[in-house]
Amino acid sequence: MTSMLTAPFHLIKLFLPDMKKKGWGRIVNTSSTLGVVGSPFTSAYATVKHGLIGLTKAVALETATTGVTCNAICPGYTDTAIVHNAVHTTARKENISFDDVMAQTLSIMPTKRLIEVQQVAETVKFMCCSSASDQMTGASLLLDGGWTAH
Known about the structure:
There is one protein chain. This protein has helices at 2-22, 43-62, 81-94, 98-106, 117-129; strands spanning 25-30, 68-75, 140-143. The chain is 51% helix and 12% strand. It has five helices and three strands. The radius of gyration is 17 Å and the shape is elongated.
């Protein structure tokens, strides 16, 4: 909870006054697809990620006339050590292969592929640097391989 919700709250509180004073700023919170949808056995994680989206929307409304935008990126399963470790742990616990667990994990995503870290980074860059993002505030941008299209 501290690193995923309390820390962003305090960082926003710390940096927002200077952003408002300059008349420009970009806040991008890293939520998750699980901040938008529920999934079994993820109640603590999903709670925090839903809370982060709530924080994002509140800050967006509070700063709407200041030149500061606040959005969230919500990636699905991403090609990181955390995901690979979770798949390995599940494979050991269930006594099934890594590939079988990964296939089960990806079955929820129509693309059947992990999100690449570079794809997340490029999406954040768009949210911060594109003139098209000036009017995007309070958004939860899904990068989920079609997960939430079901």
